[in-house]
Amino acid sequence: MRIRREPQIGVFLATVLLASFLTGCLGIGGKKKAAPDTTQSAEPDKVLFNSSMNDIQHGRYTVARLSLQTLINSYPDSEYLAKAKLAIADSYYKEGGTSGLTQAISEYKDFITFFPFLDEAAYAQMQVAMTHYRMMEKPDRDSTQARAAEDELQTFLLKYPQSPLVPQAEQHLRDVQEVLAEGDYRVAHFYYVKRAYRASAARLLELADRYPLYSQSDQALWMLGDIYEKAEHREVSDKYYERIVRDYPLSPHAEEAKQKLVADGIPVPQPDAASLARMQHEQEIPRQHHGLLQNPLKLLKSGPDVSMAAHAGQPNLNPPNESIAASEILRPGPGGAVVVGGEGGGGSSSGTGSGSVAVETVPAGSSANATVVTPSNSPPATGSNPAQPVKPGAPAPPSATNPPANGDKPAATTKDPKASKAEKDKKNKESTSKKKKGLRKIIPW
Q1: Could you tell me which of 153, 50, 61 has the C-alpha nearest to residue 101?
Q2: Is residue 365 within 8 Å of residue 355, measured between CB atoms?
Q3: Measured between alpha carbons, how far is 22 from 175 in angstroms, rounded to an integer?
Q4: Taking a C-beta distance cutoff of 8 angstroms, is the pair 331, 323 a contact?
Q5: Residue 239 contacts residue 260 (beta carbons within 8 Å)
Q6: At 110, phi and psi to the nearest 5?
Q7: pTM of the model
């Protein structure tokens, strides 16, 4: 038994000595010593950024923004500074809601201000436009967000024409302009049905010139042509019929517009090749048609329906013009006067806005063979009627120096201011006495 155990003990002791010897050698040399992991302690800004991005992905937006704000305040020279600023804006955008989207717009604009030369600045500008796009309402409601989205998308396309987001921005701009044009068209069509042609034409003019890609632009041009034709201005109405034939050759009004041009002896223009190709492309795009069961659900939707928006063509990149050209004649007024929409009218539906002028046509052969233009907001001359020009050979209008016949009252008389004041005081006393008498009938004391 003793002889068998001694070799086992010796082998065990030899193994322990060899292991300790090798460990000492490696410790002395230090060449094969493993380096400690100092990643987390050396890059705390990276740790904060990664943890905040994880929070955003899981919907913990408030916690993520606290971490990102800590990174911005504690590490102003960090390489993650711009990414953290943009991530804060993205967290508000993803959170949604009116307050969240409003704050997102402010954060994105701050990013553009502080980092205008980074590639992410184009993305931030696009997100500003998309935030207004998300808050856009239906055509018959407030158009503030739609107009803001149009302005921001136009800014993006003009400022970043080489961005890969340009096709997406162009399509969103077509959608926004479809909604804006639809709102103007509904108001114009309402006035058109009510035969308030001046109010209808004021909106149709801007619609036809500003939104040529609108799905009902051909109908708007047809309504304009009909309005001017009823006003006996065929030279103006034929221009709109020409636009229908040239720019909207596949319109249902194209054939009838050709017939009207032929009847007036005007050559029919050839269809524009680009417009024809665009309309053919639009007809091939499948449109979403709402059935009877889907229409009630459509009423519950807060956003607008952009299914009829164009998918081809260059959208309008010019800002809106609030004035209407002064050469647009709407309809003849009484006494041969023609009302013209002047600058500053801005599509006023009243018809007698501050920007309109009355054009009085004097018959030929008179001493004043010219066109007299009288601003509508200027006071009329004493003893004259601005709506009816004086014809040659006609008797002069009644005035203070030329009293009318048959005992009529003069058109203008000079009154003493003291006498008029005395008359007013007398009338006030009479009215007061009548009130007292009436009260005495009801209340005897």
Answers
A1: 61
A2: no
A3: 76
A4: no
A5: no
A6: -65, -40
A7: 0.65
Per-residue pLDDT of the chain in tens (445 residues, 90 and over written 9): 444 555 566 656 666 666 665 555 544 444 444 444 434 445 899 999 999 999 999 999 999 999 999 999 999 999 999 999 999 999 999 999 999 999 999 999 999 999 999 999 999 999 999 999 999 999 999 999 999 999 999 999 999 999 999 999 999 999 999 999 999 999 999 999 999 999 999 999 999 999 999 999 999 999 999 999 999 999 999 999 999 999 999 999 999 999 999 999 999 999 999 999 999 999 888 876 655 555 555 556 678 999 899 999 999 999 876 544 433 444 444 444 334 343 333 333 333 333 333 334 344 444 433 433 344 444 444 444 444 444 444 444 444 444 444 444 444 445 555 556 666 666 665 555 544 444 444 444 3
What strands lie across the sheet with 338-341, from one edge to the other? 329-332, 338-341, 356-361, 371-375
Phi-psi sector, 232: left (phi>0), alpha (psi -120 to 50), beta: left
What does 60-123 look like in DSSP terms, one character per residue? -HHHHHHHHHHHHHH-TT-TTHHHHHHHHHHHHHHH-HHHHHHHHHHHHHHHHHH-TTSTHHHH
CA quadruple 118, 123, 126, 130: dihedral sign: negative
Residue count of the chain: 445
Indicate the SS3 state at residue 232. Answer: coil
Report long-range pairs for 263-271 (Cβ below 8 Å, ≥24 apart): 264/234, 264/238, 266/238, 266/242, 269/242, 269/245, 270/246, 271/245, 271/246
Taking the alpha carbons of 331, 336, 342, 346 in that order, is the dihedral positive or negative? negative
**E strands, 355-418, in order:** 356-361, 371-375
* Contact between residue 329 and residue 338 where contact means Cβ atoms under 8 Å apart: yes
Residue in this structure with the two tokens 């806005």, named with its chain if needed? 353
